[in-house]
Design a protein that fits this description.
With about 800 residues, the chain is mainly beta. The protein contains seven helices and 45 strands.
Length: about 800
């Protein structure tokens, strides 16, 4: 049964409830008032209800595959007189029933501590654009996505989830580009050894696996980072009466068993709470179904989120068999309407997970998952599609075939290879041959301009050539030409990389050149422009990196460099107008030959297997890294002679409703230093003025570029309360502000230097289209061995990774 619910003026009523009389079965209409409910051939009495409207019931006969209805609800007349005693009675009874339910919550949760089931998921997205001139007028409405997947889902207590996807299809409007995989491996100086991998995730799609779909209200706190930064407090939590009021809204008999409809009302509108109805079976106090809405104030990305779930009893267990999510996203004048339907069947309650990596493979796509035809989807789809959905599928199938055709690929290559003014200025100039899997690129003119380079203005031309092979190996060549006009000096470098095992990120890389290099790569904003932070570097760099076993990364490299001062470089007179343009210090040139070895272990690292790609998700455990560098004298003319070792430990800790903490501990020392030059010292980043840099990697009030040739200890930590306190303050809670505290510690014993910092800040999440970020204002204070405590205000920006669902800090 499909239809639309409107008021007496023909305007759609958003998120109305549609249910079958004397059952808990039903659904929620979307923001346009449209709904769909799967029924068998029979006669039904259907109940339609919405806040501020009269509830009506209508009899309907289902005699065909698709039955269309249009429902009109009248506004509810205000009742001036209410029977207070009835309200109190309903509330008291609701409280008594929920006491019984809460007492049995942990029992039902523990009964379902391990299971596997077949899962089918269908997601539909529709975009609606409003008229910018005429109020409440819609210009266009069209489908954006239809995503289906089918497979086997696994769950085990302690937040262990896994999906084996046997069928997957994403029918996306042509303008979008989702589903690609990226793998990036950096250079020798990268502190993060493991490759940066990810998928182009569409944040409009709420459910990408069983972990997203499992909004389990049998848990006290529900972690759903895709919905809210704060854990959602279940209406069945042990402390639910502190956050909710409960009323008996109605009761009925279903299969000779009495069912109570319990109205759930949140006490705090800005907290991470639910509102709606629970359907509870009398005597056994089992959850039959629910229809809930999440408080808008708790949502960070969605404007509305409505949830429906049905449960069945299997022995002593209560298992979900159907879930539905109806949501709304607003982007200016555009509205994105989302509907997700998830079906579970074929439950089993013992999982063969003896393989140590079973739970580390978060998602596995089988080889045939992306090759299913329309007949397959028609055979497994548990409901009938709307006509516009059928039309969209046919349209996208035709488009997909065209996109895969030789004609289209040649046309796309031709379009990409066509040069226009905007490409020349901003985007860059490229040449691509899809059939040969090769691509050439030159950066745009704006990218080539370096106004504050060594010796003044420089022109930097960067190029890249990438070649793919049938065995999924990849070759990359990256030349750079850098010319300074004032000194007429030409510099450049050439890098060549070869990825020969994508599943293990195995890569060889060689780079050679004559460049003006940074003394230390991680600099303040001002330091990136200062010539004092540069040296001339004639270098040869060779390294190999790979993943030895899951989560254990290894890098081995050799590095040759002939380093010399650039104090003889002349600068144009205009640079004197910039105070930060400090001149470089002279030093005696020297050569260095160095080896570099590094191990980095991510305990219990989780990942996705998709084709020949391994996509890293992350780990809930600490990451431990150990790096060893050795300067070898006399070999290839090398003069430096030293041994250096550094240990790094990073971790993120989830404190449930109290927020999340992140810390980083670093300790290092030069074990031997027979010949150690200034450039090889350990450097500590100078702080930026007014800008709050990443607090996990830097100090905030370090006004001098410190370095050491001995040992050091550094500790950085930050904690996000995610509005735990401010959301309880009236009026302030409407601003959606979040509290952040943290600090750092730096000790350099040989210099008798110690600095400790503390900071507190207020942040707010902002969304611009698909990108989320936090803007924050922070008060920072620090005291060191050479300065007294001071307080400064700083502004920072923190970006969100929608794939890993984590923030930069």
């Amino acid at each position: 049964m499909k239809g639309q619910i409107t008021d007496t003026f023909g305007e759609p009523i958003p998120f109305a409830r549609v249910g079958i009389e004397n059952t808990s079965y039903g659904t929620i209409a979307n923001a346009q008032g449209n709904f769909q409910l799967e029924l068998t051939y029979n006669s039904y009495t259907v109940i339609y209800s919405a806040m501020d409207y009269e509830t009506i019931s209508e009899k309907i006969e289902i005699q065909q595959d698709v039955t269309l209805v249009t429902i009109v609800l009248k506004e509810e007349a205000t009742e001036l007189e209410e029977t207070v005693i009835t309200v109190k009675t309903k509330k008291n009874l609701g409280k008594e029933i929920m006491k019984q339910v809460i007492d049995k919550r942990s029992y039902f949760r523990d009964q379902l501590s391990e299971y596997q089931c077949n899962t089918y998921c269908f997601t539909s997205l529709e975009k609606e654009e409003a008229d910018s001139i005429k109020t409440d007028s819609i210009i266009s409405r069209k489908k954006m996505n239809l995503v289906e997947w089918n497979g086997t889902s696994y769950y085990k207590a302690n937040n262990r989830y896994k999906d084996v996807i046997t069928a997957f299809i994403d029918l996306t409007e042509p303008a979008q580009n989702t589903g690609s995989v990226t793998v990036v491996t950096g250079g020798m100086d990268d502190e993060i050894l493991e490759p940066s991998t990810g998928m182009d995730v569409n944040p409009y799609l709420f459910v990408n696996g069983i972990k997203d779909a499992d909004i389990n209200i049998f848990d006290n706190l529900i972690e759903a980072p895709g919905l809210s930064l704060r854990p959602l407090i279940s209406p069945m939590a042990y402390n639910a009466f502190l956050y909710y009021n409960f009323y008996v809204e109605s009761s009925f008999y279903e299969e000779n068993q009495k069912i109570y409809q319990i109205r759930v009302e949140p006490r705090f509108r800005e907290e991470a709470l639910f509102e709606g109805s629970l359907y509870i079976r009398d005597t056994s106090w089992e959850l039959v179904s629910y229809a809930l809405t999440i408080n808008r104030g708790a949502l960070t990305y969605f404007r509305e989120m409505h949830l429906v779930a049905d449960f069945e009893k299997m022995g002593s267990r209560i298992v979900p068999t159907r879930r539905e999510y109806v949501y709304l996203i607003k982007e200016g004048k555009k509205k994105i309407h989302g509907n997700v339907r998830v079906m579970h069947s074929g439950y089993g309650f013992e999982i063969e997970d003896n393989n140590g990596k079973f739970w580390l493979e978060s998602t596995v796509y089988t080889p045939e998952a992306f090759n299913r035809d329309s007949a397959y989807w028609s055979s497994i789809r548990p409901f009938h599609l709307k006509q516009e959905e059928i039309n969209f599928i046919h349209q996208q199938d035709s488009i997909a075939k065209y996109y895969a055709s030789e004609t289209y690929l040649k046309k796309q290559d031709s379009t990409y290879n066509t040069l226009n003014v905007w490409d020349f200025l901003f985007n860059g100039v490229g040449f691509r041959n899809t059939f040969k899997k090769q691509e050439f690129y030159i950066g745009g003119l704006i990218e080539q301009v370096v106004p504050f380079g060594v010796g003044g203005y420089r022109h930097r031309l960067s190029m890249s050539y990438d070649k793919g092979f049938k065995n999924n190996h990849e070759l990359s060549i990256n030349p750079v030409i850098d010319y300074g006009f004032h000194n007429k000096d030409l510099k450049g470098q050439l890098g060549v990389g070869y990825m020969y095992n994508p599943r293990r990120f195995s890569k060889f890389f060689i780079e050679a050149g004559d460049v003006y290099d940074f003394v230390t790569g991680y600099q303040s904003i001002q330091g990136t422009f200062a010539p004092a932070n540069r040296v001339r570097n004639r270098k040869l760099e060779i390294y190999h990196r790979l993943e030895l076993i899951n989560g254990l990364y290894f890098k081995a490299g050799i590095f040759y460099s002939n380093r010399s001062s650039i104090d003889n470089i002349e600068y144009p007179s205009w640079v004197d107008n910039f105070g930060f343009f400090s001149k470089p210090e002279p030093f005696e040139g020297y050569k260095i030959f160095m080896t570099d070895f590094e191990f980095s272990y991510h305990f219990r690292q989780k990942y996705i297997l998709k084709g020949n790609q391994k996509i890293i998700i992350g780990s809930q455990w600490p990451v431990v890294s150990l790096q060893y560098k050795k300067g070898i004298p006399k070999l290839f003319g090398g003069q430096s002679d030293f041994d250096f070792m550094e240990l790094r430990v990073t971790d993120e800790i989830n404190l449930n409703s109290l927020g999340q903490s992140e810390f980083k501990f670093t300790a290092g020392s030069f074990l031997r230093k027979s010949d150690l030059r200034l450039i090889e010292h350990k450097y500590f980043r100078t702080s930026d003025k007014f800008f709050f840099s990443n607090p996990i990697n830097s100090q905030q009030l370090l006004d001098t570029a410190l370095n050491t040739a001995n040992s050091y200890i550094q500790f950085n930590a930050i904690h996000h309360f995610n509005g735990f306190f401010l959301n309880k303050v009236w009026l302030l809670n409407r601003l959606k502000l979040e509290e952040t505290v943290g600090g750092s510690f730096l000790a350099i014993p040989d210099a008798h230097f110690v600095q400790a910092e503390l900071y507190a800040g207020i942040e707010r999440v902002i969304r611009i289209r698909k990108q989320r970020f936090k803007l924050g204002v922070y008060a920072v204070t620090a005291a060191s061995s050479f300065s007294r405590a001071d307080v400064q205000l700083k502004v920072g920006i923190n970006f969100y990774d929608s794939f890993k669902r984590t923030w930069d800090y």
